[in-house]
Design goal:
two-stranded antiparallel sheet, 2 strands
Length: about 90
Amino acid sequence: MKTAVRTATIPWFLHLNHADYENEDWKVPAEIGNPDASETVEINVMDEIGQLLLTGDDEHLQRLTWWYNQVLPMYGCVVAGDYGAINAAD
């Protein structure tokens, strides 16, 4: 039942990138807000999302956002004028 509920309610999340969210536990610093904390905690993203959907508890949302902040690769923004567009002034 637990897996069926997760799969039915959040299939979009599994396609965000190539991570195996359902079968992987992630280690993140235990103290939320301190990336240099010496202790780590393991979370299962799909379990946290499932609990968030069931309970609406902010604790799960905080853990998920902390996890996302720690594992998200650095995103390099490129600012370029008229990238891929035609400039009518030319």
